[in-house]
Structures are given as C-alpha cells and as structure tokens.
UniProtKB/TrEMBL annotation:
It comes from Candidatus Cytomitobacter primus. It catalyses: 5-amino-1-(5-phospho-D-ribosyl)imidazole-4-carboxylate + L-aspartate + ATP = (2S)-2-[5-amino-1-(5-phospho-beta-D-ribosyl)imidazole-4-carboxamido]succinate + ADP + phosphate + 2 H(+). One of its GO terms (biological process) is 'de novo' IMP biosynthetic process. This is phosphoribosylaminoimidazolesuccinocarboxamide synthase. Transmembrane segments: none annotated. It is an enzyme of class 6 (ligase). Residues 55-220 form the SAICAR synthetase/ADE2 N-terminal domain. Pathway: Purine metabolism; IMP biosynthesis via de novo pathway; 5-amino-1-(5-phospho-D-ribosyl)imidazole-4-carboxamide from 5-amino-1-(5-phospho-D-ribosyl)imidazole-4-carboxylate: step 1/2. GO terms for molecular function: ATP binding; phosphoribosylaminoimidazolesuccinocarboxamide synthase activity. SUPFAM superfamilies: SAICAR synthase-like.
Amino acid sequence: MKNLMACDLEVRMFVDSNNLGKRKLLYSGTTKQIYGAGKDTLIMHYPQKLQNDVWRNHSSSMIWKYLSGMGIKNHFIQKLNLREQLIKAAETYPVFAKIYNIVPREMHQRIGIEEGTYFDKPLIEWHFKSKELNDPIVSLEHIKHFNWLEKTQIEEIQYITSRANDILQAYFYCHKMRLGDISLEFGKIDNKIALIDEISPETCNFWSVDVMGQMQKDEVYSVMKNMAKS
C-alpha cells in the first residue's frame, strides 16, 4: 500500500508540474529550466524534449542524495517528480572545476596524451562559465587576477572537488563503471561553498571496468537504471 501511495503522489506531482505557466521562470537553457519555488528555494525542471530527461533527473537526484549522505554539502533538497527537483538557491561563481582520472579523447586531441591513460593523481582543470565561448579553460592566475575567487575559496573548491571525486569513483566502481572525469559547479549557500547545478551522465564520462573503453551515454543510463532497482 505504501508503494502505491508513493506512486500516486509521484503521478499527481508530475501532472501538476506540467502547469508551468503559473510559475516564475528565472532561467531557461537548452538542457534545463529554473523556476522560483519559495524563500531561498528553486525548482529545476528537465524539459520533456530532452533525451533521457526522466532518467537524467533520477540519476542526478540519486547522486546528490548519496553525496549528501557522505557529508558533501550541495543544493539538493528532494526529487519532486519525474522531471523536477527542489533545490536551494545559491550565489553562483563564474568558474567551475573539471577533474580527470582518465585521459578522454578531447584531452588527447588537445595535448597529445594517449587516450585512456590513467592519472597517478587526478588532474583538476578550471573553466570560465560561458556557453558563447564554449566554457574555455582558464588558469589559476586568471581566477586570481580577475578576482573570480578568493584564495581560500579556491582551496576549498579544490578540496571538495577531490573529495567528491574520490567518493564517486568508489560509488560507481561498485557498479562496474570507472569515473573518467566529472564537471563540478559551485555556489554559496548559507555563506558556505556547496556543489550546485547537475551531476549526471551528462556531466561525467565513464569507462567500463570489464572492457577498457569509454562508455556511451545510453550504456551509462542503462547502468543507472539497474542501480535504481538495486
């Protein structure tokens, strides 16, 4: 009975989420929309037009809950329905971090290191957030010179990035996937640095444990679906 009630609630909330006209749209991008929800809270909506939209929302929610349980502060509050999450509002930073455990094809094409090479120590790259400029790589000197982050903020973000990477590597390895790289965005919530935005197969690259090679998105989502059942 409890499962039936939960399912009924999910369906009713999903129906309600279709009536988006009554909400205040704060941001509309190609992959997600942000609506006002109340004091210091927002609703992240994954449009139905996206491929794997439902599983993108579910996998992201699953990862956020796991990180929360491991003590990593983030903006996630709860999954509302098939395509939406309730999240905390955050003051965003103009840069994000991308951490690599394995050399992907795009890095091989940039600097010539053989694709599939394992790093002895994970490599962190910084990117300036700009869709128009395709999120260009920037150096720590850029970040300091333009005052995008303070020294203590850089150090804390580097620590959280490394910690989240370690946690998620172990988490996914249990499900036969190696975390190749992951993009992590940060913001300030209650005057503390926290992970924000999205963590899903769209922001990560995975390599198979059993067969050496980068996994396709559909393969990753298939594993995520099995994870949800376990």
